[in-house]
């Protein structure tokens, strides 16, 4: 009888010790880093809990706490619109006072931005958009920037005019017609027509 009493006391002491150390009742935050999330719509999932992550966030934290030795498996329940995200180190077993090894990396989709050119009978035209440029040759009837991010604002400018010609973008807001602005769509997008006439 005495041995039974001692065993019961020992079991109770072990239970208290485990509780203090996180062995029962969740006390660990499940979190991670987020890179290059420029679009809304990302939803992460772990053990039934959905976690929306808005554009611009650099980290995430699930609201449900987990216990030491709990298994976790973070997956993507929904991709952001116009982007693709992947997870590294998203599954494992909780072994510390916080679990933050997961990394979500995102890449925004890109599409070509194209426009029409009329009257380009000479060389020398140079179009630029940020760090990117293109030089349509004489006789070419279109221009293109191959990789523009979904939903990104763009501004195309004429850096140099073709020899003996004056080119202007249709609908340009600048006085000399030397640039055009807009927002990239979620597919190949058409920019303003560039009209070239003799000076």
Percent helix, as a range, is under 10%
Overall outline: rod-shaped
Q: What is the subunit arrangement here?
A: single chain
Rounded to an integer in angstroms, the radius of gyration calculated over CA atoms is 29 Å
**Amount of beta strand:** over 45%
Poorly predicted runs of 5 or more residues: 1-24
Structural class: mainly beta
What are the secondary-structure elements, in order, as H or E? HEEEEEEEEEEEEEEEEEE
Total helical segments? 1
Distance between the termini: 111 Å
How many strands?
Answer: 18
Described by strand count, sense and barrel closure, the largest sheet is: 5 strands, mixed
Mean pLDDT figure: 89
Description:
This protein is mainly beta and 199 residues long. 10% of the residues lie in helices and 48% in strands. The chain has one helix and 18 strands. The strands form five sheets. Strands 10, 13, 15, 17 and 18 form a five-stranded mixed beta sheet that branches. A four-stranded mixed beta sheet has the order 4-1-9-7, with no helix packed on it. Strand 2 and strand 3 form a beta hairpin. The longest helix has 19 residues. The termini are far apart. The N terminus is likely disordered.
């Amino acid at each position: 009888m005495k041995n039974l009493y001692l065993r019961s006391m020992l079991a109770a002491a072990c239970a208290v010790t485990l509780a203090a150390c996180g062995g029962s009742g969740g006390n660990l935050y499940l979190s991670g880093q987020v890179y290059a999330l420029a679009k809304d719509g990302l939803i992460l999932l772990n053990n039934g809990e959905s976690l929306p992550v808005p554009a611009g966030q650099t980290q995430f934290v699930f609201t449900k706490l987990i216990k030491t030795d709990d298994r976790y498996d973070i997956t993507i329940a929904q991709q952001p619109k116009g982007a693709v995200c992947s997870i590294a180190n998203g599954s494992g077993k909780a072994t510390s006072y916080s679990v933050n090894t997961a990394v979500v990396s995102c890449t925004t989709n890109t599409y070509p931005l194209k426009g029409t050119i009329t009257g380009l009978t000479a060389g020398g035209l140079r179009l630029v958009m940020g760090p990117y440029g293109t030089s349509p040759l004489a006789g070419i009837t279109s221009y293109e920037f191959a990789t523009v991010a979904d939903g990104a604002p763009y501004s195309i400018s004429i850096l140099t005019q073709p020899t003996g010609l004056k080119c202007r973008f249709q609908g340009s807001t600048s006085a000399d017609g030397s640039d055009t602005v807009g927002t990239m769509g979620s597919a190949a997008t058409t920019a303003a027509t560039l009209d070239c006439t003799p000076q």
